[in-house]
Write a structure and sequence with these properties.
The protein has about 280 residues and is of the alpha/beta class. It contains nine helices and ten strands.
Length: about 280
């Protein structure tokens, strides 16, 4: 279900809504990425992992036009991001939503007013009443109770702030959803609930999700593929079994370490619980 915001264009129908080719990002003499390439498939949840300092958030910021690469090409929904001279040249910004770390909510605005910010920016002609209704719908779509719409971020728990940030990211019925460490700081129950919500929204709304995470449970539970950043580039992209077949030391340490084995075991137990009894589908 969508809110049918006026002026929306047809959804992207290509196979790869995000294409990154040969990107270099550096700050002064410090090179973060060198010849980094990545293709994100339409409709998938792609998990992005890597050690601290590998530039996962820098890559996301480059894709959405907040960081200008020093070299390379980035195409989003068929439009070049790297050729844009400024933000005004990126006319597809309304077709993606972003949940930054911590939610990044405006503290002086209510949850509903936070959700209305992108609506006011991109569709100022929408009537106030319709804008309020859209905001309330997005708040409830994110799993928050309707009364949360009138609350300020300081009145919410950490998990509720994450959902409020998600509601704002969904405000414009995006095709792409960028999530930066969405379960960081959440307890295991809250993190699992957020994972389930992400999967349900992706399937229901037909979203392509670019998800930066350190959470192995998230990777096993909802990600279709995982991209691994190491050695200043994407060294591998694939399902977790495909990654486990590789002999790169970081991949092996990450997925075969104690936490990786625990996440794999938890996923196996969950599948056994969901398995039909009597061997019948």
């Amino acid at each position: 279900m969508t809110t049918h915001i006026p002026g929306h264009v047809e959804h992207y129908t290509g196979d790869y809504p995000i294409v990154v080719e040969g990107v270099r990002n550096q700050f002064g003499d410090h090179v973060i990425h060198e010849d980094l390439s990545l293709k994100v498939r339409r409709g998938e949840i792609l998990g992005v992992v890597g050690g601290s300092g590998t530039g996962k958030s820098v890559l996301m910021r480059s894709i959405i036009g907040l960081q200008v690469p020093d070299a390379g090409e980035i195409t989003v929904l068929g439009q070049s991001i790297t050729d844009a001279k400024d933000d005004d040249d990126i006319d597809i910004r309304s077709r993606w939503g972003v949940l930054f770390q911590g939610g990044a909510l405006f503290s002086t605005l209510t949850v509903a007013e936070n959700v209305e910010v992108p609506l006011l920016e991109f569709y100022p002609e929408i009537a106030d009443q319709l804008r309020h209704e859209i905001a309330l719908y997005k708040v409830m779509l994110s799993g928050l109770p309707s009364e949360a719409a009138a609350k300020y971020p300081s009145e919410l728990s950490g998990g509720m702030r994450k959902r409020a940030g998600l509601a704002r990211a969904l405000a414009l019925d995006p095709e792409l959803l960028f999530l930066d460490e969405p379960t960081a700081g959440l307890d295991p129950i809250g993190a699992a609930a957020f994972d389930r919500l992400t999967r349900e929204l992706a399937d229901t709304l037909g979203l392509t999700v670019f998800l930066i995470t350190h959470d192995l449970d998230t990777l096993y539970e909802i990600c279709d593929r995982v991209a691994v950043i190491a050695d200043k580039r994407v060294i591998a992209v694939g399902s977790i079994p495909e990654l486990l077949a590789l002999d790169h030391p970081w991949i092996q340490e990450y997925f075969n370490g104690p936490r990786g084995r625990a996440a794999e075991a938890a996923q196996h137990r969950a599948k056994q619980v969901d398995k039909p009894q009597g061997g019948k589908a």
